[in-house]
Amino acid sequence: MLAQSRNLVFVGMPGSGKSTVGVLIAKRLGLGFLDTDLLIQQETGRTLQHIVDQDGYVALRETEEKVLLNVNVQQHVISTGGSAVYSDAAMRHLKTGGTVVFLDISLDTVCARIGDYSLRGISKRPDQSLLELYEERSALYSCYADLTVQGDGLSQEQVCDALVDGLHRIGYE
């Protein structure tokens, strides 16, 4: 079982399984589940894509930072938005009470899983390619991660198994 009050904080690209695997691992470990993309939508009354379309990617990142800094839960799996790692303050806040898990998938897997990324509310510069975004974010995910779980070619249950194994390796029982 995880340390009494620690959260698991999932980071990774869209399509990496942060929400789907997050729910499964929360059930398996008896933890709550929180999806910060849904918190952003609830707070703003708009979809992520609407925020990006109307106000730009910077506005989405600013709103995301504000929401993340207000997350104050224990014993939860927290699924963050793919751009959470752009806020050092938010990531430091989440790390104080949690273990950051990078759900790592290849760019090919990202493309296969999300299809038309222009409909996903992805926070990227207008001139930035998906490859450039992937490379930029992968470095940030790795920087903040306490544990990295490779998800390519694995089912959701296999990712959960790999995650539990990884938690044991880094000292969780």
What's the short version?
The chain has eight helices and five strands, in the order βαβαααβαβααβα.
What is this structure's SSE topology?
Blueprint: E1 7-11, H1 18-29, E2 32-35, H2 36-44, H3 48-55, H4 57-69, E3 76-79, H5 88-96, E4 98-104, H6 107-114, H7 130-144, E5 147-150, H8 156-169
Parallel strand pairs: 1-3, 1-4, 2-3, 4-5
Helix pairs in contact: 1-8, 2-4, 3-4, 4-5
Task: Characterize the structure shown.
With 173 residues, the chain is α/β, with parallel strands linked by helices. The protein has one domain (7-169): P-loop containing nucleotide triphosphate hydrolases (Rossmann fold). The chain contains 8 helices and 5 strands. The protein has helices at residues 18-29, 36-44, 48-55, 57-69, 88-96, 107-114, 130-144, 156-169; strands spanning 7-11, 32-35, 76-79, 98-104, 147-150. A 5-stranded parallel beta sheet has the order 2-3-1-4-5, with helices on both faces. Helix 1 (18-29) packs across helix 8 (156-169), helix 2 crosses helix 4 and helix 3 (48-55) packs across helix 4. The longest helix is centred in the C-terminal third of the chain and has 15 residues, at 130-144. The termini are close together.
Structural class: alpha/beta
- Spell out the CATH superfamily: P-loop containing nucleotide triphosphate hydrolases
Number of domains: 1
Taken in chain order, the helices and strands follow as: EHEHHHEHEHHEH
CATH topology: Rossmann fold
What oligomeric state do the depicted chains represent? single chain
CATH domain class name: Alpha Beta
> What would CATH call the architecture?
3-Layer(aba) Sandwich
Largest sheet: 5 strands, parallel
Widest sheet, order of strands:
2-3-1-4-5
> What is the number of E strands?
5
Percentage of residues assigned to helices: 40-55%
Uncertain residue segments: none
Cα shape: globular
Radius of gyration: 15 Å
